[in-house]
Amino acid sequence: MGARNARAEKYLALHQARIWIGRRVNILKPEEAFPGNVFRTFDCRHVRTSMSVSLHRSPAFNSAHYKGLATCGSVWACPVCAGKIQERRRLELEHLVQWAETQEKQAIMVTFTFPHAAFHSLADLLARQSDAFLRFRRGSPFSRLKDFIGFSGLVRSLEVTHGANGWHPHTHELWLVDPSVQADICSRLVELWERACIAAGLLDPDDTAKVQAFRMHSVDVRLNATSGDYLAKQDSSRNWGITHEVAKATSKAGKAKGVHPHEFLVRRQKGDAARYFEYLEGMKGKRQLFWSPSLKAKCGLQDFSDEVIANQEQDDADLLGRLDQDQWDFIRSKRLAAQVLDAAELGGWDLVTRYLKRLGYITRPPSELS
Ligand SMILES: [Zn+2]
């Protein structure tokens, strides 16, 4: 799928999120006139934050964007902000892996999963998962292991998909370790992870079939990981899009693995709206990406919050033109925000105005504008 189609799809999904949020707030808080006060995503790329909405284009990337619109910065709730934040986080990870090489460290990729069933609530699984990680990391066995492998920091990415076996929270971690670390580290990690999952109530030690499967699949280690490996792993659960996800969801492996929750906004199956809100509720306050303290500073990266990144644009972008309130109302009512960006990239301001005219936008005479 091309980048422009993917963007259009994210904007459509965001539109669906607005519809669901509007309904939800109407039921839960009928007295609330502004659903955006309850879920900021309701206002994202919709509500103006200044008199006019300006269109900009970065010459280096030929990518257009708006200024003067609310941005929610929620990696969980908002498909548009999530995409943007993810793009930026990719660059940070690439930088980290390159830096690790200069420090003569090996990057290894470690994925942790655990068994779950369709009747488990997401909140319950997440609480047990974080309990399991606390147990896994605290205590001397893990400290000894860290010393042994020359562990010098990690980045952890929290992912949730939903499939035939219900919610599937899992983590992908990038560890910086000594170059001498070999594949046999996996069995040591499985031992510790198994103990932690049993203690957290995620694995029944008497269920021998489950325990067998757990030992085979619950920890996956890839040595000498490139940032590409890591990102590909993340993407398989995160970089959703109709063609991609549907292809996956109809294959056997895809059914088991499930879809990213933003896919709920596109496929809209029975129960998907409720699942979308269960996801938002469950992920509230959680960070999608966790970096070991001071690791960013060590490798020379500044620490920006998701909200800042969602609002950040290329500094070198040129101003193409300003959309007045009337034009912006037209664009958003016809759900053309993504298409107007396409037009801006393909033919600048001139094409944007011709495009709006072709779709029926009539420039009002100045006397009518107040
Ligand atoms: Zn947003």
Query: What does the radius of gyration come to?
Result: 23 Å
Strand order of the largest sheet: 6-3-5-4-7
Shape: globular
Uncertain segments are 238-254
Characterise this structure.
The protein is α+β, with helices and mostly antiparallel strands and 370 residues long. It has a domain at 84-239 and 285-292: Alpha-Beta Plaits. It has helices at 3-28, 79-102, 122-137, 140-149, 185-199, 208-217, 227-238, 242-250, 252-257, 264-267, 272-283, 295-298, 306-311, 325-333, 337-358; strands spanning 53-58, 63-67, 106-112, 154-163, 166-177, 219-222, 289-291, 318-323. The strands form two sheets. It has a five-stranded antiparallel β-sheet with strand order 6-3-5-4-7, with helices on both faces. α1 crosses α15 and α3 (122-137) packs across α5 (185-199). The longest helix is centred in the N-terminal third of the chain and has 26 residues, at 3-28. The chain is globular, with a radius of gyration of 23 Å. Residues 238-254 have low confidence and may be disordered. Bound molecules: zinc ion. Zinc ion binds at residues 41, 44, 71-72, 74, 78, 80-81.
